[in-house]
Amino acid sequence: MNLHYTSTRNSDVKVTASQAILKGLAPEGGLFVPERIPALDVSMEELKEKSYQETAYAVMKQFLTDFTEEELKECIDRAYDSKFDTEEIAPLVKAADIYYLELFHGATIAFKDMALSVLPHLLTTAARKNQADKEIVILTATSGDTGKAAMAGFADVKGTRIIVFYPKNGVSKVQELQMVTQKGSNVDVAAIHGNFDQAQSGVKEMFENRELAEKLASGGYQFSSANSINIGRLIPQVVYYVYAYAKLLKYEEIRDGEQINVVVPTGNFGNILAAYYAKKMGVPIDRLVCASNENKVLFDFFTSGTYDKNREFVLTSSPSMDILISSNLERLIYLITGEDTQKTRRFMQELKESGRYTVSREMYEKLSDFAAGYADEKQTKESIREVYKRTGYVMDTHTAVAAHVCSEYRKNTGDMKKCVVASTASPYKFVHSVMEAIKEEPGEDELRLLPVLEEISGVEMPQAVKDILNAEVIHKTECDADRMEETVKKILKLDI
Q: Which member of 112, 204, 343, 381 is catalytic?
């Protein structure tokens, strides 16, 4: 049965999966959502013997129903290949009594590779299916990881351009070097003088700007997105939660049907929303534990029912979570309103105008699948250090936030179900913070610490890190947060 997509803000919208992927964002600024969340049509017993690629097809075919089997399998096979440094693609590593789902074995050593390796292929296939006659401009804001993964995925892909904005001084040295050294004739990146929320808001404003859309069209361009506002980013993320459960079953760590808990470090909410979709598809997940850093806007929402971004923006050692406007939460709000687009639109308008909204008691009660916790900077460091000392396992700062929250959740609730922690980045990506935590002394120059981390972790330095050490800095564009549109026009050589 064909599955169509509607907008969180307009129930009259009805498009195919390929059209939703191609557009990125609905015309009135809403996010595309499936009319229903489909069920898996294969059992976990069957899935436990399948490869990552086979699992991806089993999941994605349920959502992307206007893609043929041949088209979808080709996209998947081109995405999950030798770019990943392990055949498993997303290995599960047990350290003490927690299972770390390592999502950082792709080309840019962060979990964004899991979806951004396949999105370019889905997008170009969608363009062909819909006879798109314009060059697709991927416009993206990044808090550190999406940008590099998107640039790597789209570099030199025919018929596409990619423009990435990131907050200057808001990402790690390795993250910045990965972006500014990215090759590709169709790739541009600009540092904004501001934070991620300003970059993200600027991108959304450009998507909603009709005058700009007309100017783009006259220049032979159309916008699309590689952020998780694009449903083509979100659906591939569902896959690894299905895969993780199947592998726990295969390794005889759980019995078929046994419920597990999942803890996800998140700022923009997409990664944990994907786990929620997996649960709705039939994966036996009990609690979805939302782990925040000191920018704990999501923690406060899940504990009070009020979303309030009116607070100090904190720069932390887990910069990919330094976010106060969690775009993907809109998709969850849509579901707990009973799929009421008018209510959802009102909440998003409140957020835009006053920076806050409060859900009703009835809506709040529908959040019972979720729990929440947060870790401050001290707790994040302690988490890295303690897990390393106890098990020898080295994790990055974002994973450490989740590990701390997992431990606190168990202590506070007594819920000792098997727990999968989404490990979202390689420790090499945040080597300064990781080594500072382990050595318990002020860190040295970030790049000089790389071989030290290699020695203590016993894990070879990833090729992605080796590649940037002597790479030429190609991209030097900077702009103020309110000059992003002007920067895009300049890059595309549109009449300003």
A: 112
